[in-house]
Amino acid sequence: MAARTSLLVGLLVLLAPASAQALPPFTTGAKTSPSGGGQAELFGAAAGCHSTFDRFVIRARSATPGYDVRYVSQIVEDGSGDPVSLLGTRRIRVIVRDARGHTSGGTNLLPSVITPGCSNLRQIKNAGDFEGQVTFGLGLRRRTGFRVFRLTGPTRIVIDVKH
Record's superkingdom (predicted)? Predict the structure, then answer.
């Protein structure tokens, strides 16, 4: 019976999702990743408030997009260069490369504004869908560490911002 229990516990450990220890650390430095080839279609974005961090998730299909996520002093709109106003006092710019946030017919697939009002993540705005890149601005209450990673099934880019 003890051997069966040990085997069952071992299988559960192998089948469980990756633990938080397997995730990248929270730091304030820029995070980048290349695309996997082809152009991804971004078809959804959402934010969530958690007990120790706030999360922004971008869903993609058709390809694996690249990303560049970093603190900046100002978010500007792609194409026009106009400043984008956001709630909060600090800014993180999220550039998703080799991607588009619209259908080939021109229908927008992404929200223009998300205002979750989380502990640190105050607001997210779509700052552009221009020449193969989609840009988001994250408005934060304060500058803290953040991490970025991908999930699959479906493809997602996840940005967690520490409180």
Answer: Bacteria
Give the β-pairing of 90-97 and 133-140.
Answer: antiparallel
- Residue 65 CA to residue 75 CA, distance in Å, equals 21
Contacts 24+ apart (CB under 8 A), 15-23: 23/147, 23/149, 23/160
* Residues 12-66: tens digit of each pLDDT: 333 334 445 599 999 999 999 999 889 999 999 999 999 999 999 999 999 999 9
Structural domain harbouring 32: 27-162
Q: Is residue 154 part of a domain?
A: yes
- pTM for the whole structure: 0.87
Query: Is 16 part of any domain?
Result: no
Return the residue matching tokens 């996520």.
69
Q: What is the CA radius of gyration of the chain?
A: 18
> Does a structural domain hold residue 44?
yes
From residue 10, how far is each of 1, 6, 14, 140 by CA, in Å? 14, 6, 6, 41
Our count of domains for the chain comes to: 1
CATH number at residue 42: 2.60.40.3500
